[in-house]
């Protein structure tokens, strides 16, 4: 069975060896390939699963994709504890070691520039969610053509009272959103002032993320490792008097949002 090279990241030579038990995609151990003073961290993976056609089919399988992404991230996390890795795209595969070396040489200038800019820095993610009320859920259901909940008992509420209550709920919903969006803007401005760089990403869909509530801020912040504790404490101190607003902090991650890497020749196999 032919083995392909699955590349996770590029980094400088490591000051410590990779953990002997560190496994990545397809349960294969991670290893290092050096070229011109750059290290590609990779695993040997079976061609029957990672050649172009089967890989494309696997990427449509949510369970396979979830397991592969988790294994990929496991290696990136281990590297982040040792160095400043430049993560490559999920599914970056080459035919052999020679193909990996060609990629390293072709992109050497780009990799070195990114490493110099990101050395000693990590990425922190901050999200702000607004918890949705039952009324909001009912309204979303109507917008998607779902059947409304059970009607109120006959005579319980007049038409005028119903409209008044609905207008009141709408105003309360709008006020909650305005407070949440204002809070998210202030938080982003405050955290951006403490970070070296920041990125605003599109809000995440609750269907895909599995998180409760609606995402109103999805941001990444580039922070020196030496100031990460201070950054985390700043997020922890944030308090908001808007009911139903939740702040979520994740990290430290490799600086995915700040590498500035182009797509290059990934997937050359």
Automatic annotation (TrEMBL):
Predominant localisation class: other
Cellular component terms per the entry's GO annotation: gas vesicle
Keyword Disulfide bond: no
InterPro entries: GvpL/GvpF
Annotated segments matching region Disordered: 133-178
Single GO biological process annotation from the record: gas vesicle organization
Compartments it resides in: Gas vesicle
UniProt keyword annotations, A-Z: Gas vesicle
Family: Belongs to the gas vesicle GvpF/GvpL family.
PANTHER family registered for this protein in UniProt: PROTEIN GVPL 2 (PTHR36852)
Protein name: Gas vesicle protein
Biological source species: Streptomyces nodosus
Lineage: Bacteria, Bacillati, Actinomycetota, Actinomycetes, Kitasatosporales
């Amino acid at each position: 069975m032919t083995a392909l090279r699955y590349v996770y990241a590029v980094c400088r030579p490591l000051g410590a060896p990779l953990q002997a038990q560190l496994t990545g995609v397809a349960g294969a151990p991670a290893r290092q390939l050096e070229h011109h003073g750059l290290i590609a961290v990779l695993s040997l993976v079976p061609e029957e699963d990672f050649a172009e056609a089967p890989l494309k089919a696997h990427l449509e399988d949510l369970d396979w994709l979830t397991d592969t992404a988790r294994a990929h991230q496991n290696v990136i996390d281990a590297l982040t504890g040792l160095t400043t890795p430049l993560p490559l795209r999920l599914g970056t595969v080459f035919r052999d070691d020679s193909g990996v070396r060609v990629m390293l040489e072709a992109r050497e200038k780009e990799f070195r520039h990114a490493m110099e800019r990101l050395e000693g820095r990590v990425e922190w993610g901050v999200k702000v969610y607004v918890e949705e009320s039952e009324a909001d859920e009912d309204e979303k259901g109507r917008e998607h053509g779902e059947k409304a909940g059970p009607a109120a008992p006959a005579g319980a509420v007049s038409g005028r009272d119903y409209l008044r209550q609905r207008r009141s709920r709408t105003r309360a919903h709008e006020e909650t959103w305005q407070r949440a969006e204002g809070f998210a803007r202030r938080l982003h401005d405050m955290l951006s002032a403490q970070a070296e760089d920041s990125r605003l990403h599109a809000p995440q869909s609750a269907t895909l993320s599995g998180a409760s509530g609606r995402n109103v801020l999805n941001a990444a912040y580039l922070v020196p490792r030496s100031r990460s504790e201070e950054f985390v404490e700043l997020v922890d101190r944030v308090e908001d008097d808007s009911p139903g607003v939740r702040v979520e902090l994740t990290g430290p991650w490799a600086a995915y949002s700040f590498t500035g890497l182009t797509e290059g020749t990934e997937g050359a196999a």
